[in-house]
Amino acid sequence: MNRVYYVIFSIIILSLVSCVNNTDLLHDALVKAGMNRIELDKVLNHYKSQEEKHCAAVFLISNMPYHASMEGGGLETYHHIYNLFSEEGTASFKKIDSIQSSKQRYNIDSVKYKQDIRHLTSEELIEIIDDAFYVRELFPWCKGLPFDIFLSMFFLTGFLWKDIRIIIKSSAKYIKQS
Description:
mainly alpha; 71% helix
């Protein structure tokens, strides 16, 4: 029983420490957000009464200045090639070669980088945080992670894992049955 109290106490302390350590980083991130600060403030206010999720929001926002995403026409061709390869494996090589030799060729110059801190909406960030906590509850190995490790695993890997979140959520009923 003492062990349970120790674990709960440790989680609370880690949560508080992770929030306190990020205060300066959070302030800097909010300044760098420019006009998007309104969206980030919405996220922080949304989780004001949920301590762990609020700490996760602080951690996520504090680290956002170091992440970016890409957009542009050339990226659509890249995604098309990636999807072909994922669905068909090596059988897709002929199709990929024909795409690359056509006018649809992947062009890095047409891709634009967007800082996450300046364009992600409050809805997107809330979805990311809620999904991370959903996964944490779904998998026993996630429940046992120290909070700071959980934050690093789910919020420092970038935002490209949206596809993974969709797959996990759609297969959750099968995961729970196993």
